[in-house]
Design goal:
Distance between the termini: 48 Å
Order of helices and strands: HHHEEHEHHEEEEEHEHEEEH
Largest sheet: 8 strands, mixed
Structural class: alpha/beta
Helix content: 40-55%
Shape: globular
Number of helices: 9
Radius of gyration: 23 Å
């Protein structure tokens, strides 16, 4: 059996890229870190690192084992948390994955209500968009593109919470700010501020809007998040499109209008591990999320 302590050292070295950085983080000497890695290589029979100059770099085997090691360490942490729950009398823990706007506008009220109703349940909320771990939370609030085939892995139930339409964010002095809705093609000459990085669902939806409208924005500023995007629009730098949930509580200097031709939306769903469905706190949390989703936009049946 692989030594979990050495596995933790492996994960740290792969993450930091340095024996010294791992030694500093874990309060070891670099020599001790090197010895643990050598022992792990003997245990596994794999070459996990190779010399590179005065340091080491992980091999493909080393990187893959570190990925699995992170899953194992997360699982061990959950067991430790469960033991702590039993020791001090808590009734259990729930881990909730979320994306930024749901974490900002939905989960604070949900967490407050659960704390009142289930004071001995520990609620762990983590950002999973982009994912920070390959270990699934108990309830993962996710987004999907409209029309994508519904999917949930084995042991997980998919629950639709809401449809979240995209809106265009304009400076209040923009020529179209007084309209009831704006066609995407009419914004083809405006500089665009783009919030979303990589290949996430929201990024693909915005790019779908551009393609469907036949526009190629001439200037794109990459904002860090929807707050930064809104700040750029408020400063008159450009326009943007984002889900309505992210466009909540806007400053007076901007307006949010429905974007049409094409209209666009994302589907907000919850992936719920079947093993926690019978927990009263989990069922209550789901009910609260469904209430919020229904108030935001009625989901498809």
């Amino acid at each position: 059996m692989v030594d979990i302590h050495r596995l933790r050292i492996l994960c740290s070295v792969v993450a930091t890229g340095s024996l010294k950085a791992t030694a500093d983080a874990l309060s070891f000497t670099p020599s001790a870190v090197s010895q643990h890695l050598s022992a792990l290589q003997r245990e596994t029979g794999l070459t996990l690192f190779e010399r590179s100059g005065r340091g080491v770099v992980p091999t493909a085997h080393g990187r893959r084992l570190a990925e699995k090691g992170e899953e194992a360490l997360a699982a061990v942490t959950r067991v430790d948390q469960f033991i702590d729950d039993l020791r001090i009398g808590r009734t259990g823990s729930l881990t909730i994955g979320t994306f930024a706007s749901a974490g900002e506008h939905w989960l604070p009220s949900v967490a407050a209500q659960l704390r009142r109703e289930f004071p001995t349940t520990t609620l762990v909320i983590e950002l999973t968009d982009p994912p920070v771990s390959s270990v699934r939370p108990d309830i993962d609030i996710r987004t999907e593109r409209r029309g994508a085939p519904p999917h949930a892995p084995a042991g997980v139930t998919r629950i639709v919470l809401a449809r979240d339409p995209f809106v265009v964010i304009l400076p209040r002095d923009h020529p179209y700010a007084g309209l009831r809705e704006v066609a995407a093609a009419d914004l083809g000459n405006d500089p665009w501020i783009h919030e979303f990085v990589g290949d996430g669902e929201a990024a693909r939806i915005v790019e779908d809007i551009w393609r469907a409208a036949g526009i190629a924005p001439r200037s794109i500023i990459q904002a860090a998040d929807h707050h930064g995007t809104i700040a750029f629009v408020a400063a008159g730098v450009g326009v943007s499109a984002m889900p309505a949930l992210a466009a909540t509580a806007l400053p007076d200097s901007v307006v949010a209008l429905p974007i049409v031709r094409p209209d666009a939306e994302r589907i907000i769903v919850a992936h719920v591990r079947d093993s926690i469905r019978q927990q009263a706190a989990a069922e209550r949390l789901l009910a609260l999320l469904q209430d919020l989703g229904a108030a935001h936009h009625t989901p498809d049946p």
